Write the structure tokens for this entry.
Amino acid sequence: MKKNDFKMLKLSTLILGIVLSLPLFSQTESVGEMFELAKLKSGVKNRRISSTDPTGGNRDHLEPFRPGEKRTIAEIKGVGVINHIWVTIAPPPGELSRNDIIIRMYWDGNDYPSVESPIGPFFGQGWDERYNYASLPLSAGPENGTGMSSYFAMPFGKGARIEIENQTGKTINAFYFYVDYLEMTKLPEGTGRFHAWYNHSLTEALPEGETEWSLTGPQQPNKKGDRNYCFIDTKGKGHFVGINYYVHSPTPMWYGEGDDMWFIDGEKTPSLIGTGTEDFFNTSWCPKEPFSHPYFGYPRVNNDIGWLGRTHVYRFFINDPIFFETAVKGTIETGHNNNLTLDLATVAYWYQENAVMLPPAPTQEMRKPKPFINHMDMHRWRDAWRKAKGNDPQLWGNE
């Protein structure tokens, strides 16, 4: 692979947002990432747009957002790269859902966004929840997930615009933010544009039921992935760099037997096929414990029976991006052969040659979090099971 093919692969945490506009070292050239930090740059100026109080006072936040209001928080002209975004919002989750505050980013004067996501899931906060989260490109917290940061490099050649929409039905009392960027004379040749897309689905079990682990019936193979959940579907040249995966399971059954399947450059049969959801996320054996690594982890795990409840997993492809020349469709099974009903949402992150229009965004009603299943629901299930089994007064539960 040519050296230029590696442009835009690294995220900017270690070198303050500049690395993604430069080639990666090959193994024979590598002298360490930190050496890059010592290299002086020419023709680069730091710029910032923030919610600072223009009077010099201490009201360093935007005035309240009314329900339904859209507001442009940053509009930048010329050439550059956003290398840091920080946001915090009041009221906090529980009072104001970050699942219903939408962030959109527009590159190069386009009238369509190349980033569109609820603001919580974009920064690694699923549903209407708050918890600490730390990865190389994204973080949330402290205090308890309320300070949200991005270190993704976001280049633009003809301007950039960031828009916030309040779909909560309530007032955003205070919106604090930084957008830090580098003003440049030109971008390096081959620099891609950053994209992020939120998708959501309430997946459908098979007609024969949720047959996971063959507990309720035989399992069938899945070779084509026709019913797989899709988290990226785009045309053009680029590379995929990460995913936040938010799954709510209504059953104690393990949700993660599904394989990832990648259809690259128009393939009818996937050329990349995985061995299970936890394997795709670099973990193993049905985990349910918090874990954080710069590239992968479980910042939020269910604390219910079995794997009942909500889990957030992430994986960033920093040293191992998935390349495509003309198109890519990234999918994952929802249970083996898509046999489970799951409330599933994802945010996918990638770079491609030109800023493109995203697939349609899920509506507020579509992405509304499902309620938790609890012990009373299970007791109702047991009652229905007893009656289906003849209502013997000594039925135990596993007959």
About this structure: The domain at 46-184 is CATH 2.60.120.1390 (Jelly Rolls). The CA atoms of residues 141 and 284 lie 27 Å apart. The longest strand covers residues 79-90.
